[in-house]
TrEMBL record:
Native organism: Nothobranchius furzeri (Turquoise killifish)
Domain G-protein coupled receptors family 3 profile positions: 567-667
Any one GO CC term of the record: plasma membrane
Membrane spanning residue stretches: 566-589, 609-625, 637-661
Pfam assignment, any one: 7tm_3
UniProt entry keywords in alphabetical sequence: Cell membrane, G-protein coupled receptor, Glycoprotein, Membrane, Receptor, Signal, Transducer, Transmembrane, Transmembrane helix
Membrane topology reported for the UniProt record: Multi-pass membrane protein
Recorded GO MF terms: G protein-coupled receptor activity
UniProt-annotated location(s): Cell membrane
SUPFAM superfamilies, A to Z: Periplasmic binding protein-like I
Chief localisation class: membrane
The name this protein goes by in its record: Extracellular calcium-sensing receptor-like
Family as reported in the entry's similarity comment: Belongs to the G-protein coupled receptor 3 family.
Length: 704
């Protein structure tokens, strides 16, 4: 599709799904690729570019006195075709003999809109970047294209896969899906997305991958069957897919054959709005799909422009009219003359060119969900605004050598790149458009949901968005009541490898499994885990103990013998009774201290023995009742002193008795001289510290 102008913009679009490569025999001139399988949506994108250029040409404030033209090529979804089209656009179609010493005039095109494929854009940008020809893609999302060293003139009006991956991780985090499968296409788009997804998922600790499978480019039934078997055996209920609709169509045929249901699909922007997948046969499996989609925009006048599309019967041999004829035949199911043999005989219709587009339902006129088309619209306007800024340059104050400015006659593509990096404008829809230092657009995605309507129809519903926050982090907004869940419970599924460990237990990883798969082991006594999925148990402070569930530390309960308890009452009564008896006996001895029997019984030691016995009985009262600091410090010392005093008295009395019996023998009278009153006191005082120290050691050992 071509239109002349003062400045020409190039474009690469997918107007056909398939192509047949010519035989390369190297003995004859190779033929052109044969493209077939009309892509109506791709044709609508191409017409969106022509609409934007016409709209700009009619705008007196933007590029006044400059007419934009266009030259659009079909890439047929084939790298070779798209690459050849790009080279044809920048080099021109005809050989020109230049007689002057230098080339004058503007190049064939000053910039390209496209390509839609990341793989195509990588190849094309690698070459066109050498000449600094600006390329503004509307659908290539590979994060690798943000490398300004390799692709210095590449720009895009769609966010990079880096942001798309983070947006999908935010969806996983929002619903608590920590266990998911990942399917990718066998191209740069899928491989770079998988690499970025694994890296970001690992660094964020938001989940693990149950499996990672690469979808075959062609319909490999054996490989597709194996992939579906992996999905069926996995416990992951969430499946993330980074691929376009082609490989997914092949996969879904096998999914339907094996009747694999109960999965929650997460779609990348490459297929989240693909109408070819929203069929009655596939919706029982794909209904409820969540995905990120290109920001939807409004282009109100586009429908009227598309309605002007009509075949020109006077130029049937032109490529552009041939493409329109294909669309016309596809839409109205008719044929232009000359028709194939037997077409009319079999009831086929002849196309007249006068058919009314408004009388049929066609995707070509559906502007209710403009997403890639809106990116095409922004890409054209970005080039136009950059060109407008360049032409507004004041001579002598330009950004180039010697403060020069560029003109339409001396325009070089690299000069447009300079202004494209600084472009900043607002679309009629109210969206700001600019590029960062990597040539990427402002990151924002819509979150969409596939609704399966009761009448069997489908609807793509916008349920939220993901964008960069002021803190340069992903911010997700979801309207959950609007989400359709394709499950009996009408609730989001649960997709985890292992359930969360409750408080009081710690995680122990399973050998050979991802970190999301673990066993829960209860904490030992005295240790707690007060959060879910804790990696370790923590010891309680000295005066605390773990609760029965080991989920918190509780103050140790003070247990003591109370005076209100039967045992306490009995012990207190026995203590007082013993003290009373000792006091009575002591009183009797004191009253009769002058009698011979009391004197003969060593009254001083007897008094001390009774006194120590009284203290021993009273010491037991210190062990009854709520412990206090002074009672805890006094109880052992008081009992130890009283008990040792008592034993010392008994020891001296025993030694005196032994001495008396020994003295009763012949020649033993001399032994009594060592057990006078003074000697008895000395023996008692020496024995008391010895017994006390031994008693204290016993108490310390019992404490230990």
């Amino acid at each position: 599709m071509h239109k002349a102008g003062d400045v020409v913009l190039g474009g690469l679009f997918r107007a056909h799904y398939f192509s047949v490569s010519p035989d390369l025999t190297f003995i004859s001139v190779p033929q052109q690729h044969i493209c077939y399988g009309l892509d109506v949506e791709g044709l609508r994108k191409a017409h969106t570019m022509t609409f934007a250029i016409d709209e700009i040409n009619q705008n007196s404030k933007l590029l006044p006195n400059v007419t934009l033209g266009y030259s659009l090529y079909d890439n047929c979804l084939t790298l070779g075709v798209g690459f050849r089209g790009a080279l044809a656009l920048i080099s021109g179609q005809q050989e020109e003999t230049v007689t002057d010493e230098k080339c004058l005039g503007s190049p064939p095109v000053i910039g390209l809109v496209g390509d839609s494929s990341s793989t195509h854009s990588i190849a094309i940008s690698s070459v066109l970047g050498l000449y600094r020809v600006p390329i503004v893609s509307y659908f290539a999302t590979c994060s690798c294209l943000s490398d300004r060293q390799k692709y210095p003139s590449f720009f895009r009006t769609i966010p990079s896969d880096t942001f798309q991956v983070r947006a999908i991780i935010q969806i996983l985090k929002h619903f608590g899906w920590t266990w998911a499968g990942l399917l990718i296409s066998d191209d740069d788009y899928g491989l770079y997305a998988a690499r970025s997804f694994q890296s970001d998922l690992s660094s964020s600790n938001e989940g693990c991958l149950a499996y990672l499978e690469i979808l075959p480019r062609k319909k490999d039934l054996t490989e597709l069957k194996r992939i579906v078997e992996v999905m069926k055996k996995s416990t992951a209920r969430v499946v993330i897919v980074f691929a376009d609709e082609g490989p997914i169509l092949n996969l879904m045929e096998e999914v339907v054959r094996q009747k694999l249901t109960g999965l929650q699909w997460l779609a990348s922007e490459a297929w989240s709005t693909a109408a070819v997948l929203q069929t009655p046969e596939l919706m029982p499996y794909l209904g409820g799909t969540l995905g990120v989609a290109i920001r939807r925009g409004e282009i109100p006048a586009l429908r009227d422009f598309l309605l002007k599309t009509h075949p020109d019967l006077h130029y049937n041999n032109s490529n552009e009219n041939n493409l329109v004829n294909q669309f016309w035949e596809f839409t109205f199911q008719c044929k232009f003359a000359p028709v194939p043999a037997g077409w009319v005989e079999n009831g086929g219709l002849l196309c007249t060119g006068g058919e009314d587009l408004q009388s049929v339902e066609t995707e070509f006129l559906d502007i209710s969900n403009l997403r890639p088309e809106y990116n095409v619209y922004k890409a054209v306007y970005a080039l136009a605004y950059a060109l407008d800024d360049m032409l507004k340059c004041e001579p002598g104050r330009g950004p180039f050598s010697e403060n020069s400015c560029a003109t339409v006659q001396t325009l070089e593509p690299w000069q447009l790149v300079y202004y494209l990096e600084k472009v900043n404008f607002t679309t009629p829809f109210g969206e700001q458009v600019s590029f960062d230092e990597n040539g990427d657009a402002l990151p924002i995605y819509d979150i969409i949901n596939w609704r399966w309507l009761p009448d069997g129809g489908t609807e793509i519903c916008n349920v939220g968005d993901v964008k960069k926050s002021a803190l340069n982090q992903e911010e997700i907004k979801l309207d959950e009541p609007k989400i359709f869940w394709n499950f009996k419970s009408k609730q989001p599924p649960r997709s985890v490898c292992s359930e969360n460990c409750p408080p009081g237990a710690r995680m122990v990883g399973k050998k050979g499994e991802p970190e999301c798969c673990f066993d829960c082991v209860s904490c030992s006594e005295g240790k707690i885990s007060n959060s879910t999925n804790s990696l370790d148990c923590f010891s309680c402070p000295e005066d605390f103990w773990s609760s029965p569930l080991c989920d918190q530390c509780v103050l140790k309960k003070t247990e003591f013998l109370s005076y209100e308890e039967p045992l306490g009452i009995c012990l207190a009564a026995a203590s007082l009774l013993g003290t009373f008896i000792c006091a009575v006996v002591l009183g009797i001895l004191i009253h009769h201290r002058s009698t011979p029997i009391v004197k003969a019984n060593n009254s001083e030691l007897s008094f001390q023995l009774l006194l120590s016995l009284k203290l021993c009985f009273l010491c037991s009262l210190l062990f009854i009742g709520r412990p206090r600091l002074w009672t805890c410090q006094l109880r052992h010392a008081a009992f130890g002193i009283s008990f040792v005093l008592c034993v010392s008295c008994i020891l001296v009395k025993t030694m005196v008795v032994l001495a008396v019996f020994k003295a009763s023998k012949p020649g033993g009278g001399a032994s009594l001289k060592w057990f006078g009153v003074s000697q008895q006191r000395g023996t008692y005082m020496r024995g008391f510290p010895t017994f006390y120290l031994e008693k204290k050691k016993t108490v310390v050992r019992s404490r230990d």
